[in-house]
Amino acid sequence: MQQKKYFGLLFPLLILVFIVSCNNNTSNKKRNVFRMNFNFGLSSMDPAFAKDQGTMWADVQLFNGLVQIDSNMNVIPCIAKNWKITNDGLTYEFNLRNDVFFHDHEKFTNGKGRKVVAQDFVYSLNRLIDSTVASTGGWLFNGKVAKENPFEATNDTTFIIHLQNPFKPMLGLLTLQYCSVVPKEIVDFYGKDFRSNPVGTGPFKLVRWEENNVLVLKKNDNYFETDAQGNKLPYLDGVRISFIADRGAEFLEFSQGKLDFMTGLDISYKDKLLTTTGELQPEWKSKINFEKMPFLNTEYLGISMAKQDCEALKNKKVRQAINYAIDRKKMISYLRNGVGVAAENGMIPNGLPCFDANVKGYTYDVEKAKKLLIEAGYPNGKGISEIKIYSNPTYSDLITNIANELASIGIVCKIENTPATFLREAMRKNEVGFFRASWIGDYPDGENYLALFYSKNGAPPNYTYFKNTQYDKIYEQAIKETNAEKATALYHQLDKIIIEEAPVVPLFYDELTRFSHKNVSGLTKNSMNLVILKNAKLN
Asked: Is the whole model's pTM more than 0.85, yes or no?
């Protein structure tokens, strides 16, 4: 009894020591706890609700799934060693590792994390389509997996997914944090409180979460992945996450060395860090690391094909003229400090393996734009009524620039600034004819961008209400194609149709900006904007 009493006093003390060590900024050589900030908050750590950035960033440290993505956005093994897909594309069979264990927890036998088996994946993926759970990830499998027995475990290391129809992007879907494996007995024990008591298999495990204040994770000494030399991951002893909402204050913490890492570029400090060509300002070059990489986000202007306040926008040549009238490269340089790539190749962004620079979109050509307006019957824009461009205030500088460029070919625009939530609802209801939007990839497959124009999809994602019989036919063929090369060729055909019909004006393919101090290395690159810390080091 006396021994238990002393342990009860000692355990909180050990936690306190760990927290203090996380805040110790005196020596980078002594400290091996990575410090970062979630300016977007954190609502849950339950993978079934991994719909927002905070949950995804936390879950990628705490959990694993069948598969994962590498730095080139290819699907690679994780808990599944390998897999095979039947020729008809309806059955996916995964062969699992037998050396993966859940984090230690008192509800497991002797408090030791038990081995992950195929039945755990049956349970975890069924949670996503269980109406009583009300997961925000139900869309991944609803209408795609078989209605009866969609997930099956034939033994401890064989897990099978049965589909209703072939769906080529399925492997990409399985890389999402939604598809992480969780232990049923722990979820049952906590119920809804599993959101704040996560138990997974990931490289780190939870120590403490004070909502809106601090999140502390520590190294999982029983983690199954190793580096290329066979060394156990992760290298870090822990992670300390703060929740500073103000981007300017976050930058101040980073500049003072109180954060090891920062991502994103806010207007409050973008000119302090970067030149107009997207390079670090000279005074920062010796102090921090800077990385730019593709981000699966295409920014665009959408044109409703079903409802139009401006009659001229129903004319394809007018839509094409608008595409030619915008100087995308100048926009990137002067409005975004060189962050982003001019969208001159269609809707599929350059961060995906299926991106092809040979798919030619629109480049800046004012003379061609004017010629198209003449061919459309609107010389110098004469006869085109004022066009309203709907956007939200965050993009006012970008939309003002676009309006000025369209004015140069005789098209007069009026900017309607609307809060983002109201604008999305208006887009959904087809109440706006010309609008700024973006599409951030849900999963690493080009189909995710092409689904925006499939006529059988509602809004979202088909906010333009685009309808084209040839497009629909090729799209349906593409998602059933199990050969990756053939599917990619079909994707390119679809992108070319969108370029020709011009229901959208692609503006730029976004890029991620990452800033870290010189002692940081090993941050895994990816275009899904995930901060993966299992390979990170503090040198």
From this structure: yes
Closest CA relative to residue 206, chosen from 61, 53, 78, 64? 61
Burial of 26 (0-12, 13-18, 19+ CB in 10 A): exposed
Instruction: Give the residue extent of every domain in the chain.
Output: 35-211+219-237, 294-512
Mean of all residue pLDDT scores within the chain: 93
Which distant-in-sequence residues (6+ apart) come within 8 Å of 521 by Cβ?
Answer: 536, 537, 539
Spatial distance between the Cα atoms of 320 and 501, rounded to a whole number of angstroms: 8
Mapping DSSP to helix (H, G, I), strand (E, B) and coil, where does residue 47 land? helix
Q: CA separation (Å) from 420 to 43, 53, 89, 437? A: 20, 17, 39, 10
Token couple for 251: 């930058």
Nearest 10 degrees: Cα torsion 256, 258, 262, 266 = -50
Number of H helices, E strands in the chain: 15, 19
Domain 35-211+219-237 CATH (choose: 3.10.129.10, 2.120.10.30, 3.90.76.10, 1.20.1250.20): 3.90.76.10
Q: Tens of pLDDT along 113-144?
A: 999 999 999 999 999 999 999 999 999 999 99
Answer for the pair 415, 391: CB distance below 8 angstroms, yes or no: yes
Phi then psi for 96, rounded to 5 degrees? -90, 150
DSSP 92-161: EEEEE-S--BPPP-TTSGGGPPPBP-HHHHHHHHHHHT-TTTT-TTGGGTTTTB-SSS-EEEEETTEEEE
Residues 6+ apart with CB under 8 A from 416: 388, 389, 390, 391
The Cβ of residue 55 has, within 10 Å, a number of other Cβ atoms equal to 25
d(Cα 487, Cα 475) in Å, to the nearest integer?
10
Q: Which residue is associated with the tokens 């494996």?
A: 181
Band of the pLDDT at 29, cuts 50, 70, 90? low
CB atoms < 10 A from the CB of 30, how many? 9
Q: In terms of Cα–Cα distance, which of 204, 461, 512, 460 is closest to 339? A: 512
Nearest-angstrom CA–CA distance, 370 and 364: 12
pLDDT of residue 89: 94
Q: Could you check whether the bond before residue 506 is cis, i.e. omega within 30 degrees of 0?
A: no
User: What are 376-410's pLDDT values in tens digits?
Assistant: 999 999 999 999 999 999 899 999 999 999 999 99
Q: Does domain 294-512 have CATH number 3.30.450.40?
A: no
Q: Which one-letter amino acid corresponds to residue 165?
A: N
Cα separation, 390 vs 322, in Å, equals 16
**Would you say 154 and 96 are in contact if contact means Cβ atoms under 8 Å apart?**
no
